[in-house]
Amino acid sequence: MLVDSHCHLDLVDPTLTQTDALLEDAALVGVGHFLSVCVSLENAPVVRGIAARYPQVSASVGVHPNHLEGDEPTVAQLAELASDPLIVALGETGLDYHYGPDYVALQQERLRTHIRAAREVGKPLIVHMRDATEDMLRILTEERAHEVAGVMHCFTGDWMTAQRALELGFYISFSGIVTFKSADAIREAACLVPAERLLVETDAPYLAPVPYRGKQNQPAYVRQVADYVADLRDMEQDELDALVGRNFFELFPVIQRTS
User: Fold this and answer.
1) For residue 259, is it within any domain?
2) CATH of the domain at 190
3) Domain, as residue range, for 195
4) In a domain, 96, yes or no
5) What is the pLDDT of residues 176-220, one digit of tens each?
6) In a domain, 256, yes or no
7) Is residue 33 part of a domain?
8) What is the secondary structure of the chain as a DSSP string?
């Protein structure tokens, strides 16, 4: 089963009127499960509601590092929300220094809060890392993130960075960026990541793969990402699909497979 290990269904379809069609389109190309990822406490009920409605969708809870509105989450608050059986992970959390240093301290403390909550409930992390490699790996180590591990989503680093994340027990997930012309270092990592730690994703509605680059991304386009990675690794399509599906359900064991 091919899985979209990271998408934002509520952002692809804010009105929630086209979700049936989005999931059906993805099913037609072999995508059988979806992890719809939360980016704020405000949208957490919507994300959970989608998972409650569709057995092939799972949900997370967390506050994105670039989200600056609303209340700051606490360990107790996140742990309570994550104790829900429909919530399979903490995140999307992480560090993103791309837009400058103004909120570095806030992001770092928020990341620590998510790791502590994940350790409290025993569920993995969904980690966003952009222009913050050293601080990210340091904090993951200091907070013992290896006890729950998780996934480095939308991986944009090189093979050396991937190795360091793997040593902490993390899986590495590749998005449509791997198909971009400028992504040589990411492609090298996609070739070298051990098979048992490999995932693919869309990050929909963002980062549509070639040939849809520049358009709104959707879960069905994980097919293009998976096929591209399969070619890089000299694998058959069904072999790659089965591999990433197996890895996904091993990382998130609380999920009940729907097929």
Assistant:
1) no
2) 3.20.20.140
3) 2-251
4) yes
5) 999 999 999 999 999 999 999 999 999 999 999 999 999 999 999
6) no
7) yes
8) -EEEEEE-HHHH-TTSSSHHHHHHHHHHTTEEEEEEPP-STTTHHHHHHHHHH-TTEEEEE---TT--SSPPP-HHHHHHHHTSTTEEEEEEEEEE-TT-STTHHHHHHHHHHHHHHHHHHT--EEEEEES-HHHHHHHHHHTTGGGT-EEE-S--S-HHHHHHHHHTTEEEEE-GGGGSTT-HHHHHHHHHS-GGGEEE---TTS-PPTTSTTSPP-GGGHHHHHHHHHHHTT--HHHHHHHHHHHHHHHSTTSPP--
